[in-house]
Design brief:
This protein has 126 residues and is α+β, with helices and mostly antiparallel strands. Helices cover 37% and strands 11% of the residues. The protein has two domains: 20-57, no CATH class; 63-125, Arc Repressor Mutant, subunit A. The strands form two sheets. Strands 1-2 form a two-stranded antiparallel sheet. It has a two-stranded antiparallel ribbon with strand order 3-4. The structure holds zinc ion.
Length: 126
Amino acid sequence: MVHVGGFSRRCKLARVPITVMGYRCERCSHEWIPKNFKAEPKVCPKCKSPYWNRPRGKAMMTYEDFRTKIQDTLRKAGTDLTWTDIRTTAGLPQAFPNNQWVYRMEKDIGLERQKDKNGIIHWRLK
Ligand SMILES: [Zn+2]
């Protein structure tokens, strides 16, 4: 005797969804499967955006925007500020300052940072 019911039940159990890993563009929501995962794609294959893997809001702040905000905030305050003070006053989205930008600002706008005896870093303009 052949148990047809048991056979069809096995068939059903064998059907499982398979998730394929791929990339998704933050700009146009295009999803694609790369040929390999060795290197991150440089641009989205559909909209060609190089910012395909960066959420829209964060990619908008350039070094120039950042520098201007820091400069304005320190000038208006007229005194030393900590990163937290600057961040709060200027409404900056970054939790931590980008080190490369900080070095550039030391050259560009004469930013100085000095650590006090409590280990707190004070930001000021020369
Ligand atoms: Zn895209």
